[in-house]
Design a protein that fits this description.
CATH architecture: Roll
Structural class: alpha+beta
CATH class: Alpha Beta
Number of strands: 8
Order of helices and strands: HEEEEEHHEEE
Shape: globular
Largest sheet: 8 strands, antiparallel
Mean pLDDT: 95
Low-confidence stretches: none
Length: 197
DNA sequence: GGAATGATGTACT
DNA sequence: GTACATCATTCCG
């Protein structure tokens, strides 16, 4: 028998800090198998939330029932309800206990566009996944997925062998009231599918 | 037990 | 640009 170690995973790179992971995720496609049809989009906008040291993070005041998935090792999925209506999805980053997370804020639609259009009740490609609540609706992501891990219903696919050729822009995060000035929102320069302009 | 609060999206003026 | 829908979670008393 080999001594105990972490299970082999193609997702071990997610155990880096949330800011690093937020930038690396911009070279990946987020793929959903939910509902039996594959839907997917390239990640073009992310935000890093840095656990108990970040006043804007849901993990800032320590673990709760809701935020428990954030305290697992990188690769966990954390979904929460926003404004009573919208679900937003995070990929947990860092070693277990650090509670880093990356909010996925926008996708460039790539697969299952027809299904996404039906779920979103719009045919406008630019508006299918251009916001954290929009993309969860398009991919069929609900609260029940919180606490699951990447690799089953949701997975990541590399788009480029290495870093993306485009420039990554860093700026302040959207819609928060604390730690407004930290430049932890990352977008692909000039991409037309991000949530703002 | 009760009230305040959002990591938002859409519709309307 | 402003209004508001809508509810799980959190915090306070």
């Amino acid at each position: 028998m080999v001594p105990y170690s972490d299970p082999p995973s193609q997702y071990n790179w997610l155990r880096q800090d949330a800011v690093t992971v937020a930038k690396l995720l911009l070279s990946y496609e987020l793929v959903s198998q939910i509902g039996g049809t594959e839907t997917a989009g390239r990640i073009v906008e992310t935000e890093a939330y840095c656990g108990e040291i970040d006043p804007a993070s849901h993990a800032f005041r320590g673990p709760t029932l809701r935020t428990a998935p954030m305290f697992e090792a990188g690769g966990q999925i954390y979904v929460y309800l926003s404004y009573g209506i919208h679900t937003c999805m995070n990929i947990v980053a860092g070693p277990a206990g650090t509670a880093g997370a990356v909010l996925i804020r926008a996708l460039e639609p790539s697969r299952g566009v027809n299904t996404m259009q039906t779920r979103r009740r719009t045919t406008n490609l630019w508006q299918l996944c251009s916001g954290p609540g929009k993309l969860t609706q398009a991919l069929g992501i609900g609260l029940a997925l919180s606490g699951s891990r990447l690799g089953a219903e949701l997975s990541l696919r590399a788009i480029t062998p290495g870093p993306i050729p485009e420039t990554i822009i860093a700026g302040p995060r959207v819609g928060i009231s604390r730690a407004k000035d930290l430049p932890w929102r990352f977008t692909i320069a000039d991409n037309k599918f991000v949530s703002k302009r």
